[in-house]
Amino acid sequence: MDPLPNPAPLASKLRNTLLRYHSIGDGEWRMAKKTKDATVWRKPSEEFSGYLYKAQGVVEDVTNRIVDHIRPGPYRLDWDSLMTSMDIMETFEENCCVMRYTTAGQLWNIIAPREFVDFSYTTSYEDGLLTCGISLDYGEVRPNFVRGFNHPCGWFCVPLKDCPGHSLLTGYIQTELRGMLPQSAVDTAMSSTLANFYSDLKKALKT
What we know:
CATH architecture: 2-Layer Sandwich
Organism: Leucopsar rothschildi
Mean pLDDT: 92
Low-confidence stretches: none
CATH superfamily: START domain
Number of domains: 1
GO molecular function, one term: cholesterol transfer activity
Helix content: 25-40%
InterPro entries: StarD4 (IPR042555), START-like_dom_sf (IPR023393), START_lipid-bd_dom (IPR002913)
Protein name: STAR4 protein
Largest sheet: 10 strands, mixed
Pfam families: START
Shape: globular
CATH class: Alpha Beta
Order of helices and strands: HEEEHHEEEEEEEEEH
């Protein structure tokens, strides 16, 4: 088990990585799924043998409220159907923490429940916010869970210029689920999970 990293350089490196992903040209992405709430694209990840996913959709709410529902905190467990538990293990500053969370089984339990320990960081971006994270090798793995690993991930949320009560939410996700899994099952699950994330979030914000 590794010791906890120094948060400031890790946060800076994570933010720069997400900004780089956000500048990748449209031509490098291949569409993976489109629903009324979101479009999901993917490209081969530079971090591992799977894909980096990009999801994007317009959400009818202000930036701060949307990000409060996404980042570690009391809202996320209430609405994210994939997340089954969340504990804040360490808090460095108001916008920076280490959290442990578990996810439900997927695809008729072909994908068993997973546990993740993530460093999470939220910062300003243009007129909105960026909340991002990366997994750490920290804490004991609990029985009955496979420890997954999130390579640099994040959500950019900015108000629409013509309609500030709506926000453009763009996510970059690259999750290594680990364990003995067919990659095709993982890819199917990821596209659907990201599309469902938008529809669940929209429902939560309306309540």
